[in-house]
Amino acid sequence: MLRLPCRMLEYGVARRYCCGESGLARRKGEWIILEFHSEDNDGDDWVEGNAQLSTLIPVRADLVGGDHRSLYLAWLLCVQAGEVNDDAEEPPVPDGLRKLTGPLQAFAEFLQVDSDLIAAAAEDSPQQEASIPRKDLKHWIQSLPEPAKARMLLDVALGGPNPQAELLKAFRDSRSPGRRRTGKARTVAQLLAQARTRVKERCRREAEQAKRELARREQEAQAARERYLNDLAKRQAEAWSKVDQLIATRQPKKYDEAVALLCDLRELAQRDGEARAVVARLQRIQKLQEQKSTLISRLRKAGLLDPVA
To answer: Of 1, 23, 2, 14, whose CA–CA distance to 84 is shortest?
Structure first.
C-alpha cells in the first residue's frame, strides 16, 4: 500500500489505472491510497523480512514526481488477472516502459506481471527523457505566476512533503499535458493478442538459439573426440598393452575400463580403415579369456563381440 497527497496524484488518474482487485485506488481525505496485491503460485502472499519490500520504496517517489509507469504496471496486472473487459481501452501509456528502472523492475516482479505483456505494452511507449534541460526548467519557473512561486518557496521553507518532486511534476505536466500516443487506443483484447504474438516469436527465437547451441556443443564434442583419437593413434601399442593389464586384474571395475578403451580402439580403427585388425584382436581376447564370464558379458554388451546365438 502507498499513500500520496491528492495534489500529487489525481484520484481520477489513479482510478483509471488501478481499476480492479489486484490494483486498487481509493481516496481518504486529502490522500490517495493505492493497494497492490501479489500472490505466488502457491497462494502464499506473505513476505518475510524487509529486503524485497525495501527495493520498492523508490516507486512512491517516482509517482510523486509524475512517473506513472508503476500505475500502468498495476493496470497490466489487472488485465492479466482478467479484471478488465476485453473491449476496454488502455489508459495513457507512460514514457520509458521499454527500459524500467531497478525499483520498477522489482515492482513488476513483485506483482508477477508477465514480461511478454509488459513488452507488448511498451511498443507504444516513447523513450523517457534522460534528464530535464536546465534552461527549459529555468524558463518555465520564470514564467510562473507570482502566487505560484510564493507557494512553492513557502513549501520549501516550511519543509513540505516533497517540494522538489512537486515542482518537477508540474513542469513535466506543463510540457506534455495528458500526452499519449497518436492514433486509436488499444483495447485489452488487442494488447493481449500482441502479447501472445510476442510469446510465439520469443519461443521461436529461443528454439532457434537452443538449436544453434546444441549444434555448437556437438561440434565441440566432435572436435574433442577427434583430438582424443588422434592422440590415441600415437599410442596404440601402449593402449593394447594396458587392455591386457586391466583384463589380468580380474576386477569388474578394471574390466569396465578395458571395455571402454577397446571401444575407443575400435572407433579409431574404423576411422582409419583398420577395422578387420581390431576384430581379429577381439576374437583372440575372447578365445583366451573365455573362462571370464563377467568380462565376456561386458564385451558382448558393448557390441565388441557377436551376441550369443
So the answer is: 23
The answer to whether 268 and 232 are in contact (CB under 8 A) is yes
pLDDT category, 243, cuts 50, 70, 90?
Answer: very high
Region for residue 215 given its phi and psi (left: phi exceeds 0; alpha: psi -120 to 50; beta: otherwise) = alpha
Cα 78 to Cα 85: distance, rounded to the nearest angstrom? 10
Let me know if residue 143 belongs to a domain.
Answer: no
| H/E segment holding residue 28 | strand 23-28
Residue in this structure with the C-alpha cell 584382436, named with its chain if needed = 281
Residues 191, 66, single domain; the answer is yes
- Residue pair 18/34 in contact by the 8 Å Cβ criterion: yes
Residue 288 lies in domain: 235-309
Task: Give the pLDDT of residue 160.
Answer: 59
121-148 tens-digit pLDDT:
988 776 655 566 778 778 888 888 888 7
State pLDDT tens for residues 65-77. 788 899 999 999 9
SS3 of residue 34 by DSSP: strand
Which residues, in sequence order, are CB contacts of 306 under 8 Å at separation 6+? 300
Residue carrying the nine cell digits 574404423:
270
Q: Is 273 helix (H, G, I), strand (E, B) or coil?
A: coil
Are 195 and 275 contained in the same domain?
no
> CA-based Rg of the chain, rounded to a whole angstrom?
35
Q: Output the CA–CA distances (angstroms, integers) from residue 81 to 123, 136, 188, in the order listed.
A: 21, 42, 12
- How far is residue 54's CA from residue 138's CA, in Å, rounded to a whole number? 34
pTM for the model stands at 0.63
**Residues 239 and 190 reside in one and the same domain:** no
